[in-house]
Known about the structure:
The protein has one domain: ABC-type transport auxiliary lipoprotein component (Rossmann fold, 3-Layer(aba) Sandwich). It is built from four helices and eight strands, in the order ααββαβββαβββ. The chain has helices at residues 2-20, 36-49, 77-92, 122-129; strands at 61-63, 67-68, 97-98, 108-110, 114-116, 133-141, 149-156, 163-171. β7 and β8 form a beta hairpin. Mean pLDDT is 75; it is low at 4-31 and 111-116.
Amino acid sequence: MKLLMVFMVNVLFLFSLFSCATMPPQTSPDTGKINFQAETNDAVDELLNNCIIKLDPERPIIVASLVSIDDIQKSSTFGRMSSEIIASRLSQVGYSVKELKMSQNQIYIKKAEGEFVLSRDIQNVATRNNVQAIVVGTYAINKVGSRHINICLKVVDPVSNIIGCSQCYLSKSHEYNWE
């Protein structure tokens, strides 16, 4: 009987010990603190440093929504937010940025997709607004491993379609942050 009591006390002790143990928290793949705005600002700074053309701070630049490389007719919250940050950074460093949402008659805006520049009208838009360049970009979600987002930005001459600046980078942000 004494042996049974010792056994029961030990079982109760072990049960209470393990019931107090905490499980590690379930975390998403993006466990680190990611400052997506800082990543994008750094990419814009590098984009401007890599220019082979001289951009005039007085002449407007248009920033289109970034689009998925897998479907260039489709943007996302990620693509639209990226373009907002890019436009903001260009403005912060002294460039004149034309706000597309204020001139909806000159661009194509697809509901919930963002701003897309119509290629057949781009020369007219550029001429009417004295636009010197358009910032365009694509992104691809890395489906293997870390699942970060690959982003390429380009500054394109709206008349000749020649790329004057480009910057590709890997964002440590995660697709789950943008669903």
